[in-house]
Amino acid sequence: MNRQIATFNLGDSRLGIDILLIKEIYRHMSITPIPDSPPHLKGLMNLRGRVVTVIDLNVCLNRPSSEPIETSRLLVLKTDDEIGKYRQSGLPGNISLGHDIVGLLIDQMDDVITIQNSDILPAPPNLEETEDALIQGVIKQGEELIIILDVNEVLKKIMQACSSTE
To answer: What is the pLDDT of residue 39?
Structure first.
């Protein structure tokens, strides 16, 4: 079965997530910081009257925090209600993105690639920059590896970090 993966850059790494999970890619960011919040919570943003929680994906992946730059984008994820209709399109049934709108801060948007599920390989053991639980696998494109994130696990990590600071 064909899957489309939205790829993006985060530092020197190229990562990707299933395009069916992305509601929109947003460029103009005015982020309001949240006092005393965990480091991965970059802040809140107003997106056409709706509040978006902005997540610093670098911090989630155990990298230094990043400040938005000219090429930065916000991957606004769909909510559970919005992804329900895509379950018949090959989206795994165990994905839960919650009911709040969440945006992942990335350094630069790249490309959308079409793959087969069989193209996703297990992550190599020397992939140090991120936790294994947050990686669904990797795709090899030429000499480059694209890390496919498990968005479900990324959001679980965020929720655990938030509950541990309460």
So the answer is: 86
CATH number at residue 78: 2.40.50.180
**Alpha-carbon distances of 154 from 59, 64, 150, rounded to whole Å:** 11, 16, 6
The structural domain count of the chain equals 1
Question: What residues form DSSP beta bridges with 77?
Answer: 22
- Kindly list the averaged pLDDT for each block of 10 residues, start to end, along the chain of length 166: 90 91 88 88 90 89 80 89 64 62 92 92 71 84 90 80 59
| Strand partners for 138 | 121, 147
How many whole angstroms separate alpha carbon 42 and alpha carbon 107?
A: 14
Domain span holding position 156: 2-164
Q: How far, in Å, CA of 76 to CA of 131, rounded?
A: 22
Q: Is 127 exposed, middle or buried (0-12, 13-18, 19+ CB in 10 A)?
A: middle
| HSE of 3, CA atoms in CB hemisphere, 13 A | 23
